[in-house]
Write a structure and sequence with these properties.
The complex is a heterodimer.
Chain A (H helix, E strand, L loop, with lengths): L12 H34 L4 H37 L1 H10 L1 H23 L6 H30 L11 H5 L4 H24 L6 H12 L3 H17 L2 H8 L12 H25 L6 H24 L4 E3 L3 E2 L11 H5 L2 H4 L11 H12 L11 H4 L5 H9 L14 H13 L7 H29 L1
Antiparallel strand pairs in A: 1-2
Chain B lengths: L7 H6 L6 H12 L3 H9 L1 E3 L8 H23 L5 H10 L4 H28 L8 H23 L4 H15 L5 H9 L6 H33 L5 H4 L8 E3 H26 L22 H11 L6 H17 L11 H26 L1
Antiparallel strand pairs in B: 1-2
The chains are: A mainly alpha, B mainly alpha.
């Protein structure tokens, strides 16, 4: 509420961030895993009789790897920065200020990655064998260092642990409960992705089926560690999740896979199913390596993209309704502010900065409450549509529901006065074509309150008379 | 009674007797003289050329059909035709995985139709209908029709407002057919209007009659392909023998396609996660139809085309709509020359016009 609103129709600003981020995560994870692949493959090629042939192939791997990770990785990475600043400047500001040196280290890591990768690639025909191995290894270590850093910031957002506004220790926030399990999971996934990329490049080997089989067998082995260990690490990761999040995942009518299936549960299953499919796909490739096609290998890589989509959506939704769990709500409300009833009940548009002059209880009043307080998570008729969620609403129902909306577990508390609630309720039902003004809603509520007081008074008098 | 003898050529090709696979192979071949079939299948090849990717479309459509069968069987466990909406609501809200299975069933149906269109048009443009494959084409066209009937019949089963009114509008189009229209519409509905009796008919069609028909026709369709082999486009057929490349279907082509099936499996779960199938309020026959109700996308082009012929010229539209699929169906008897001659070019042009028209009218119907 302290920043201008980035109102994206249909998609919503959060989903724009999500789309860019999901693409970036696949690329960035490959960028790191691929470094390990290059390093190990270099060493492996030195021990094979057909080392030069392997290195020729590795050069093709490195070519596509370089273009894919540096170009698209940079574009989407910067894209995330642009998007998050616009979507949630408050949270971005907190993350920058809290972890300023982590960010600085991150960018040094990026510089180091690019430098070593370019030295490795462009020195291909000039560098000695040992230098190539060294550069590949250096690239991987530096790239993994960038994971080491960003993992702390990402996991902090969901499991800040002992960190709070009274204890802003960087170590407490960075090395939070979810840090280690997430670090291991991501590292193994990176290795897996490197293997899948290797399979794609192996399918480009024509006219030498035996060599193709050798490279595929080498690449497919990179899937094994993740296949075995990630399920176990997920149990560990699960244990670090907030209790409310676990309850949300399990919600639905019956147990973990309850029929209704909250959206977070659906994305959890997407990640799980994708992981299983990758293992099966890799097994098929191992059984008949000569039959592997580029389209088939790309298909498997895209299954990994779905897995990333599932896992990252799951992780982001696990934070609902916060952007920094337990500290800052997605709509800019701080947790500590919710304890100040006077603040919470004060007129919202007096606190929020970025809006035009609004006539109280007028048509625009409710719309601006929506844009400033709700649009961080909801669109009108697209993603997390507010129209479909308020289909059965009347003005009075909406007015009352907004007062206690935080009690259902995935919503922040409403900030604002009775006028604000009435204005918002009026606006939301107007999206269905109903025209009940905010003033009417307010009058209805006040009349009901007065009737209720009067009825209570009458009951008291009657009880006294009976005595 | 003596075992069947194992042919010498089989002995050379199956694994040695000391291996488990060799033992199993010999056990089966001594009891079932199927070596000629196995040998024939082992020889099945797929030509490798720049259009090879289109050979995958039929297999992908088959994949979605298998998904439909599995998810459909699961839904049948809890679906009650006497209480259609309530049972679907229970599936979605209470039954473990019901929500996701139903959504997968919905998305798989749509993708199956899409890939069948891709398969049909790719076979059309690659002229895979030419002799001796006319009946492969005809059985394929029949399969297309049956799948569209699947979609039409399945759409009503949730008995929500959307499916009820869409079916009512759809069947009202049947009424317009000359001579038999009213009778046919009444037969389909089970009366003068869409009621629970219609559910009974559509349910029997959807879970029994149409699956039997599709399995039978699919068996015949695949049998023809096994016997005659995969068709080759003119450009490939004209190549000298030494330049032609082939992949063996079992197991080279098949194993190459399996990861693509895995991708579509993940896609189905992703679509079910991101865009679960909604259940509208229960159908109310006395309510008015939702404003701007339209059929699903695969019927949208016909719907939009008919809008161009209102009132008295409606019959013109219906005749045109009938001529297009008839033209597509009979193309093998018009375009028969290998390599392509003038008739073949006209057939190609006809296909381009039909495909372009379908896309334009579908988009037009969607945005209008």
């Amino acid at each position: 509420m302290n920043y201008p609103v980035w109102d994206i129709p249909f998609l919503g600003n959060g989903l724009v961030v999500a789309i860019i981020a999901i693409i970036h995560i696949l690329i960035s994870h490959l960028a790191i895993g691929g470094g390990a692949f290059l390093f190990i493959a270099e060493i492996w090629s030195n021990r094979q009789n057909n080392g030069p042939q392997i290195r020729d192939w590795l050069h093709k791997y490195a070519t596509f790897f370089l273009v894919y990770t540096t170009v698209f990785g940079a574009v989407t990475g910067v894209g995330i920065w642009f998007a998050i600043q616009l979507a949630n400047a408050e949270a971005t500001s907190l993350l920058i200020h809290q972890f300023v040196f982590a960010w600085a280290i991150e960018w040094v890591m990026f510089l180091g990655e690019l430098t070593t990768l370019y030295l490795y690639f462009y020195g291909w025909h000039k560098n000695s064998r040992s230098m190539q191995v060294f550069l590949a290894g250096a690239y991987f270590v530096i790239a993994w260092g960038s994971l080491f850093v960003i993992n702390g910031i990402l996991t902090f957002m969901l499991t800040p642990g002992a960190w709070n506004l009274d204890n802003t220790s960087i170590a407490a926030g960075f090395f939070n409960p979810g840090y280690v399990s997430s670090l291991f999971i991501r590292t193994l996934v990176m290795i897996l992705l490197a293997g899948l990329f290797g399979i794609i490049m192996a399918t480009r080997i024509k006219d030498d089926d035996n060599f193709k089989e050798k490279i595929i067998n080498f690449s497919a082995k990179w899937v094994i560690p993740a296949a075995i260990i990630v399920p176990l690490l997920m149990l560990w990761y699960w244990s670090t999740l907030p209790a409310n999040t676990i309850a949300l995942i399990k919600s639905g009518a019956t147990g973990l896979a309850g029929g209704k299936l909250e959206v977070i549960t659906r994305y959890f299953w997407l990640a799980l199913v994708s992981g299983v499919l990758i293992v099966f796909g890799t097994l098929f490739t191992i059984i008949r390596p000569k039959a592997a096609t580029t389209i088939g290998a790309i298909s498997l890589f895209l299954v990994a993209q779905f897995g990333v989509m599932g896992a990252e959506f799951f992780r982001e939704m696990a934070r609902k309704p916060y952007v920094i769990y337990g500290v800052l709500f997605s709509n800019g409300l701080w947790q500590y502010q919710t304890r100040d009833e006077q603040y919470m009940k004060a007129d919202y548009l007096d606190k929020a900065l970025w809006h035009p002059n609004i006539e109280p209880l007028g048509q625009q009043h409710g719309e601006w409450i929506f844009r400033l307080q709700c649009a961080s998570c909801h669109t009108r008729d697209g993603y997390r549509s507010i129209i479909s969620r308020t289909e059965q609403w009347t003005g009075d129902f909406g007015f009352r529901w907004l007062e206690t909306m935080d009690q259902q577990g995935v919503m922040p508390p409403f900030q604002g006065s009775d006028q604000d609630r009435a204005a918002l309720s009026s606006y939301l039902i107007s999206l269905h074509g109903e025209q009940t003004s905010a003033q009417e809603i307010l009058d209805q509520y006040r009349k009901a309150q007065a009737d209720s007081i009067s009825a209570a008074a009458t009951d008291t008098i009657a009880t006294e008379e009976l005595k | 009674m003596a075992d069947y003898p194992i042919p010498p050529e089989a002995e050379k090709q199956i694994p040695p007797e000391h291996k488990l696979t060799g033992k199993v192979a010999r056990f089966l071949l001594k009891r079932y003289p199927i070596w000629p079939i196995i040998d024939h299948l082992a020889q099945k090849v797929v030509p490798v050329h720049k259009h090879t990717i289109w050979y995958n479309m039929g297999g992908i459509a088959l994949f979605f059909l298998l998904v439909q069968i599995v998810t459909g069987l699961l839904l049948m466990v809890y679906y009650r035709p006497a209480l259609p909406w309530a049972s679907v609501q229970r599936i979605v809200m209470e039954i473990s995985f019901g929500n996701i299975i139903r959504s997968i069933h919905h998305w798989s149906a749509n993708l199956m139709v899409l890939f069948l269109f891709l398969h049909m048009f790719s076979a059309f443009f690659m002229k895979a209908y030419r002799p001796p494959r006319e009946f492969t084409w005809l059985t394929g066209a029949a399969l297309m029709g049956i799948v569209l009937l699947f979609c039409f019949s399945g759409y009503l089963l949730p008995w929500d407002a959307l499916s009820f009114f869409a079916t009512r509008v759809g069947i009202s189009e049947i009424e317009k057919a000359p001579v038999i229209g009213m009778w046919l519409a009444g037969l389909v509905r089970g009366g003068p209007d869409v009621t629970i009796d219609t559910i009974g008919r559509f349910y029997v069609l959807h879970v029994t009659a149409l699956p039997l028909a599709v399995l039978m026709l699919l068996g015949i369709h695949l049998f023809f392909i096994q016997i005659q082999g995969v068709s080759e486009p003119d450009s490939f057929a004209a190549l000298p023998k030494e330049k032609k490349r082939y992949h063996k279907f079992f197991t080279e082509f098949m194993f190459g396609e399996l990861p693509v099936w895995l991708f579509f499996s993940a896609l189905l779960v992703a679509l079910a996660a991101a865009f679960p199938r909604e259940l509208a309020p229960e159908a109310d026959p006395y309510a008015s139809a939702p404003v701007g109700i339209k059929p699903e996308w695969y019927f949208l082009s016909q719907f939009q085309l008919l809008k161009l012929f209102p009132g008295e010229i409606e019959m013109v539209g219906m005749v045109l709509m009938a001529l297009i699929p008839i033209g597509m169906l009979l193309v093998p008897f018009y375009d028969r020359s290998i390599p392509t001659d003038r008739r073949g070019k006209i057939a190609t042009l006809f296909g381009i016009v039909v495909l372009t028209g379908m896309i334009i009218f579908t988009v037009w119907g969607y945005i209008s």
